[in-house]
Amino acid sequence: MAKLHLRRIAVFVDEPDPGCFYWVLIESKYDASEWEDIGSSDESFDTWQQAWDAGNKHLLSQVTDPKKGPLVAGEDENSSPVG
């Protein structure tokens, strides 16, 4: 039976060129040591703080219920593997 679990999503800010800040969302789905990009800003921001705030705002806009956070269906790790 599928159970809802919190998604492991992080926001970070990248500065590929001096003074050009971009937010990036990454997610770890299976192994906490492996992360994949799931979104980023199309345009740069003038400051790290502006990019950080915009990235967090984007992440929060993807959450249906702020009390529960970003959820995904997955297997219930505590259930019996046999029917």
Overview of the structural elements:
- With 83 residues, the protein is α+β, with helices and mostly antiparallel strands.
- It has one domain.
- Helix content is 17%, strand content 41%.
- It has one helix and five strands; from the N terminus they run E-E-E-E-H-E.
- The strands form two sheets. A three-stranded antiparallel sheet has the order 2-3-4. It has a two-stranded antiparallel sheet with strand order 1-5.
- Strand 3 and strand 4 form a beta hairpin.
- It is flat, with a radius of gyration of 16 Å.
- 7% of the residues are buried.
- The C terminus is likely disordered.
Summarize it.
This protein has one helix at 48-61; strands spanning 2-6, 8-17, 20-28, 36-40, 71-75. By secondary structure, the chain is of the alpha+beta class. Mean pLDDT is 87; it is low at 78-83.
The sequence of SSEs as H and E is EEEEHE
Strand order of the largest sheet: 2-3-4
Low-pLDDT runs: 78-83
Strand-residue proportion: 35-45%
Net shape? flat
Number of strands: 5
The residue fraction in helices comes out at 10-25%
Structural class: alpha+beta
Mean pLDDT over the residues: 87
Helices, by number, come to: 1
Largest sheet: 3 strands, antiparallel
Quaternary class: single chain
Distance between the termini: 9 Å
Rounded Rg: 16 Å
Query: Please, how many domains?
Result: 1
Output the keywords.
83 residues, alpha+beta, 3-stranded antiparallel beta sheet, two-stranded antiparallel sheet, 1 helix, 5 strands, 17% helix, disordered C terminus
